[in-house]
Every structure is written in structure tokens, then in C-alpha cells.
Specification:
This protein has helices at 14-26, 37-46, 63-73, 88-98, 110-138, 151-163, 180-189, 211-216, 233-236, 252-264, 290-295, 301-307, 324-339, 348-355, 362-377, 384-387, 417-431, 436-443, 447-456, 466-470, and strands at 6-10, 30-34, 51-55, 79-83, 102-105, 142-143, 146-147, 170-173, 198-202, 217-218, 230-231, 241-245, 266-267, 276-277, 281-286, 310-313, 342-346, 379-382, 394-398, 407-411. By secondary structure, the chain is α/β, with parallel strands linked by helices. It folds into four domains: 6-134, Response regulator (Rossmann fold); 144-315, P-loop containing nucleotide triphosphate hydrolases (Rossmann fold, 3-Layer(aba) Sandwich), CATH 3.40.50; 318-387, Orthogonal Bundle (Helicase, Ruva Protein, domain 3); 394-470, Orthogonal Bundle (Arc Repressor Mutant, subunit A). It is elongated and about 110 Å long.
């Protein structure tokens, strides 16, 4: 017998419930009890239940509806249904349609019950072990589409692992392009709601006049142009996860309505009269500093505290550059599938070049560079030249005047020396107002050499005379 197993007995006949609880306890199982399906569902959402022993016919919520809701939530432990004479057909239908474990007819044969509970416990134990193994594998440098072996990303994976199985609201912060939606999707995929929908809304991309309709939906005729009923994101995400990106861009009146939904767990469509249960997990994200947004009056403080039950901050790519080679390798595989290319890997020269840059656009910017490089190369190994025009330019200072601050010229990694020299001459001439004598002096070459270079690179020599140049 396994003392760690917890059995929930859902039975509306109290005498029978007491009897079953006494018997199952004598087999060294922990027992929870519920008088109806609603109480059973509440306990299953609050506690870790390993096996359910439920009557099929109960008030408020019967066994069929209990299993249906548990399956929809992705939280269905092995369930044994108890059925009275005359309802066997419904029991079989429930087992088949909703993945129940098995059924027993009343009066209950205790020998058969003990055997079924043992088998259900073994199935539950195996499922838990498989889930734990899957989680352990998923956090070894890769979690969904999140990639990183740096200490910072391993800490992020640990936080996701900790909060994903709960129902807590999560606030994800970090710069644009760091992968906040990927974290939201990883939270959903590793939660009990993984079988449900994941619905994402970008609050910054919606006009203020439409955001309420997009989130809550609307009834036909509720406003001009509402020609038919529309299901909003909140309703579409039932039994799943609703991801609100760029929360700080949500209008304040809408923030107040969202807060009310989070507190009451109920909402209604725009123009509607009927309230609906909000069975969704809210994950929000912002690329702004929440404290600053609150101070500026762009984010309600009460909404922030309601959503900030658990916060995950994503570091910028420049603070975890050791992850860049791993991210690039994963992106190459994705891009090969997308574009039908056959690129094998990135060269060490390209990896070094990529790690030398600041990546103000973070992983999103890196993805764009890698995608272009894969398309240009087509196959083989990616080299700096394949990414040259996609790489962010690193400013190379050019002191145009010893007495003044110089400008800068953009030099791409992988650019040839001739190309770099041409850009340098152009930038220096622009700085000196096409004064070739001064430009030559800054460049450390003679005026004659500069004219040769101008002809070599087919650069305009201008119409100014040399006398003017000397002034």
C-alpha cells in the first residue's frame, strides 16, 4: 500500500461516504471527501489528488460533468466511477468519452475496489514520474523555444518550473525582443492547462476603442459596426492561458475593468447582460519599468500588485552572450525547415562576430540576422560574409578634428578592407565639408593619394578648387 497516495471520495450519500472513507483509509491511503461534484472540483483545484472515487449521480454537479471539467483543465487523475443499477450505460459512455479509469456497480465489491485503486495508483505514479522526467529534460538548456545554458537562463527555467503548475498570475518584464511571449508559452505548456488554448493579445497594437471588445467580446448591436456577436480573448482562452503583452499600453479604464475580472473571476461581453465565469490563467508582460509606469500614471498600482503575484525578469541578450552560439544553432535548424535550406552550422568566426555586438533588439534582432544569413548561404557553414549586411553596425570612431568630438562610421562584420576604407573616406569628406586637404590630414595620407582613392572608388571629387580646399 502507498501511504503517499491521496484518494478523493465524492459521494452524496453520507453513510456510504463514511463507509468508503473508513475502508480506503484502512488500506493506508489518505482520504479527502466531497458531498457533490462542485465540492470535489474545488478540492481537486486546491489539493494534489492522486485518485478519484466518484459517484456518477450527484447533486449540483454529477460525475460526468466533474470528469468533463477536469479533462478540459488538463487535471484529470485516474477516476473510478460508482454507478447504481440502471445507469451502467451512462457510466460506460463517461469512461469512454472522458478517459475515466474504470467503473464499479453498487453495491461496491471491496475486493474489486481495492484492486482498481492499486492499479489506478500505479498509473498515477507512472504519469508523475514521466512528467518529472520530461520537466528535467526540458530544463537542460532548452525549454520550448527558450534556449540558454547561462546562469541567468537556468534561473529563468527554474522559476518557470516552480510557478507553471500553479494557477498564480505571472508578470514578465524585460526589454523588447528578449522573448517574453516565449516565457508565457513555456508557462502554459508546463501547466495543468496545457491542453487548453493559449491566446495572446498585444495591448499596444489595439486602438483604445477596440481593446475592450477584443478582450471581452461584444454582442450584436452593442456599438456602431457590431453586426454580429464576437467572442473575445477572455472567452476564447477558457480553460487555458490569456497572455496580455505590453500591459503598460492598456488604457487606464480598461485596466480597471481587467482588475475587476481578476478579483471576481467573472466578465461579460460588451453590451451583454449575462456574466460568464473567467476560467483562465492571466500572464502579462511589459517592456517598461513597472514602478516608472505607475509613477507616470500609465499603470494602475492595484492592477500591478494583482498581477505581480510572481514576476519573471528576462535579461537582455547582451548580458547572456554565452547563449548566442546555442541560440544560433537552434535558429539554423528552424530556418532550414522554414526556407528549405541546408545550412549545417555557424563558423566560429561568425559566432565571435555575433558575440561582439550589443544586440539592442535582443533575440528578435539576432533572429533576423540569422534568417538572412541562412537564406544567403543556402547550405554549408555560415560565415561572417553571409551576415554582413544584416549585422548591426558597430560604431568605429573617426576623429575628424583633434579639437572636437569626432563622428562615426558604421563598419559591418565581414566587410572587406576596401569597403571599409571607402566608407571611412566618405564619412571624413562629409565631416570636412568636402575639404580634401583637411580630410587627407585626418586620414594620415597625402592629398594626391586621396585623389587616387577617390578615382579608385569612383567617389565624386566635387567642384571646389584647391585654393578653397586650402582655406
Amino acid at each position: 500500500m502507498d501511504q503517499s497516495m491521496r484518494v478523493l471520495i465524492a459521494e452524496d450519500e453520507i453513510d456510504h461516504q463514511d463507509y468508503l472513507a473508513k475502508v480506503v483509509t484502512s488500506w493506508n491511503y489518505d482520504v479527502e471527501r466531497a458531498d457533490n461534484g462542485e465540492d470535489a472540483l474545488r478540492l481537486l483545484n486546491e489539493k494534489s489528488i492522486d485518485i478519484v472515487l466518484s459517484d456518477l449521480m450527484m447533486p449540483k454537479m454529477d460525475g460526468f460533468e466533474l470528469l468533463r471539467q477536469l479533462k478540459a483543465q488538463g487535471n484529470l487523475p485516474p477516476t473510478i466511477l460508482m454507478t447504481a443499477f440502471g445507469s451502467l450505460e451512462k457510466a460506460l459512455h463517461t469512461i469512454h468519452e472522458l478517459d475515466g479509469f474504470w467503473y464499479l456497480e453498487k453495491p461496491i465489491d471491496l475486493t474489486a475496489l481495492e484492486l482498481l485503486i492499486k492499479r489506478a495508483g500505479a498509473q498515477r505514479r507512472l504519469a508523475v514520474e514521466n512528467e518529472e522526467l520530461r520537466r528535467q529534460l526540458s530544463f537542460r538548456g532548452v525549454l520550448g523555444n527558450l534556449i540558454g545554458q547561462s546562469t541567468a537562463m537556468q534561473e529563468i527555467f527554474a522559476l518557470i518550473r516552480q510557478v507553471a503548475p500553479t494557477s498564480a498570475a505571472v508578470l514578465i518584464t524585460g526589454e523588447s525582443g528578449t522573448g517574453k511571449e516565449l516565457v508565457a508559452r513555456a508557462l502554459h505548456a508546463n501547466s495543468r492547462r496545457s491542453a487548453g488554448p493559449f491566446v495572446a493579445i498585444n495591448c499596444a497594437a489595439l486602438p483604445e476603442t477596440l481593446i475592450e471588445s477584443e478582450i471581452f467580446g461584444h454582442e450584436k448591436g452593442s456599438f456602431t459596426g457590431a453586426f454580429e456577436r464576437r467572442v473575445g480573448a477572455m472567452e476564447a482562452a477558457q480553460h487555458g492561458t490569456l497572455f496580455l503583452d505590453e500591459l503598460g499600453e492598456m488604457p487606464l479604464p480598461m485596466q480597471a475593468k481587467l482588475l475587476r475580472v481578476l478579483e471576481d473571476l467573472r466578465f461579460r461581453r460588451l453590451g451583454g447582460k449575462q456574466e460568464m465565469q473567467a476560467d483562465v490563467r492571466i500572464v502579462a508582460a511589459t517592456n517598461r519599468d513597472p514602478a516608472k509606469s505607475i509613477k507616470e500614471g500609465k499603470l494602475r498600482e492595484d492592477l500591478y500588485y494583482r498581477l505581480n503575484v510572481f514576476q519573471i525578469h528576462l535579461p537582455p541578450l547582451r548580458e547572456r552572450k554565452d547563449d548566442i552560439p546555442h541560440i544560433v544553432e537552434a535558429m539554423i535548424g528552424t530556418m532550414n525547415q522554414k526556407h528549405g535550406t541546408r545550412v549545417q552550422s555557424a563558423s566560429s568566426a561568425l559566432s565571435d562576430a555575433l558575440m561582439a555586438l550589443a544586440w539592442e533588439g535582443n533575440v528578435r534582432e539576432l533572429r533576423n540576422v540569422v534568417e538572412r544569413a541562412v537564406i544567403v548561404a543556402g547550405e554549408g557553414v555560415l560565415e561572417p560574409r553571409h551576415a554582413a549586411f544584416g549585422l548591426k553596425r558597430a560604431a568605429v570612431p573617426v576623429k575628424a578634428d583633434p579639437e572636437a568630438d569626432g563622428g562615426g562610421v558604421g563598419v559591418d562584420i565581414g566587410m572587406t578592407i576596401d569597403e571599409a576604407e571607402r566608407l571611412l573616406i566618405e564619412a571624413t569628406l562629409q565631416h570636412t565639408g568636402n575639404n580634401k586637404t583637411r580630410a587627407a590630414s585626418i586620414l594620415g595620407i597625402s592629398t594626391k593619394t586621396l585623389h587616387v582613392k577617390l578615382r579608385q572608388y569612383r567617389l565624386s571629387e566635387g567642384s571646389g578648387d584647391e585654393t578653397a580646399d586650402e582655406n
